[in-house]
Structure formats: C-alpha cells, structure tokens
Amino acid sequence: MSAVDTRNVSRDSLFLMADITVDGSTHPVRAKVRNLSAGGMMADGDFTVERGMRLVVDLRHVGHVTGTVAWVQDSRIGIAFDKEIDPKQVRARIGVSESTVPAHIRTAPAFTDPQIGKRRL
Fold it and tell me: Which domains does the chain have, with CATH numbers?
C-alpha cells in the first residue's frame, strides 16, 4: 500500500514512547508515538531523517520493528512498517498480560471508584 492508500486505515491515538534508530546510526532517538496502526505510526522527536530512510522502532511488548520513513513534517515523521504488528500488544499495560484480563474488563471504559477516589480499570 502507498502512503496515500493507508490514510483511511484504522489507527489508534495514544501517547507512549519508543526508541527509533535510523539506519547507519548507533544512537536511538527517544520519540513520542502519536498514533499507531498495524502498518505504521506517527512519531514526534528530534529526528534528522528524510523520506525513504530505513529505521528500526523499538516498541514495548513487540520489540524491534523495521520500516521506512514515509513522510517528514517538522519534528514529526510517518513510518511505514515492513510487516504489520498488533497495535493492541503495544497498548497493553506493563506487567499485565492482556490475555489474563477478562474480555469484559478489557473492553470496559476506565472509571473512578467513588469510594476510594482512584481510577480503576
């Protein structure tokens, strides 16, 4: 799929961090993941990249994902992954396996328990 074809693909807006290493560099750039889909992501960081450059993204719960810079705009870049990932894995809470949480809880919205005043899953 071309970058234009993928604009209508479902993507998740979220806020998490990832390390991105541009091909030929030994130092990763810490970046904010602004949105994520199975085929790519938008990241915000201190990049020195051009469209078409190869890179590796280290995503939590998924690991190293290779891809190509699809577009660059100011401090934001679009990345097209070489192979699709499962975005739900990346969003899974740290220390909790999504498969161990019952389905009705995974899909329920978070709420505040009025008795203890804390946000609960």
Answer: 5-93 (2.40.10.220)
Task: Say which residue, 84 or 116, is predicted with more confidence.
Answer: 84
Give yes or no for a contact between 55 and 67, defined as CB atoms under 8 angstroms apart. Answer: yes
C-beta of residue 32 within 8 angstroms of C-beta of residue 15: yes
Cβ-based neighbours of 56, under 8 Å, separated by 6 or more: 20, 21, 23, 64, 65, 66, 67
Strand-pairing partners, residue 117, are: none
E-only strand ranges, 28-92 = 29-37, 40-44, 54-59, 63-73, 76-81
Q: What is the pTM of this model?
A: 0.68
